[in-house]
Amino acid sequence: MKYIAVYPGTFDPLTYGHLDIIIRASKICDELVVGVADNTNKSILFSSKQRVSMIKQQINKLSLDEDIKKNIKVCSFVGLLTDFARNIEAKIIIRGLRAVSDFEYEFQMASTNKRLKPDLDTVFLTASEQQHFVASSLVKEVVRLGGDVKSFVPIEIAKELKNYFKNN
Ligand code: COA
Known about the structure:
By secondary structure, this protein is α/β, with parallel strands linked by helices. The protein is built from seven helices and five strands. Helix 1 links the parallel strand 1 (4-9) and strand 2. The chain is globular and about 45 Å long. 31% of the residues are buried.
């Protein structure tokens, strides 16, 4: 049996923090599906198509074993995460835990998802030390105000963000 995990998020945009979780999660399951949420109530800069394509581009660039890399899929989903997990036959949800402040929200979400789909468990990976404070919205704010975000996001994503704020 294939052990499939889903790593869901908004990824608007993908940061080094997310990439760190993707790399580590890919090594503990047979297949990792990065699930890009299409209908969140957050205000989103990039379309789900753009976010999926940015994530795929960065995964291609990772220096991971080709066997591991080909087991990482990226796709967008609408509706409930538990329904998406059911469709792709995922057995676990992967979430990154950055700080104590994440815990309450993550605990609520994991418990709600468990109630909705009891055979689906959430596994938490602690964010790496260098990235534990990174958040997509802060990255966006720094770019909007003219700051440099190359240590938070890959260079291609930093450029996309810069372009976005130049044109909007
Ligand atoms: N490193 C760096 N940043 C991280 C991170 C990590 N390891 N983990 C999370 N973050 C950041 C994200 O970039 C995000 O930043 P932002 O708020 O500034 O955009 C922030 O932390 C919060 O992230 P997260 O809690 O993962 O929210 P999200 O918006 O990325 O994802 C979904 C939430 C999509 C998983 C959730 O809303 C969902 O499942 N939606 C589907 C509908 C559903 O089923 N709802 C019921 C859920 S119980």
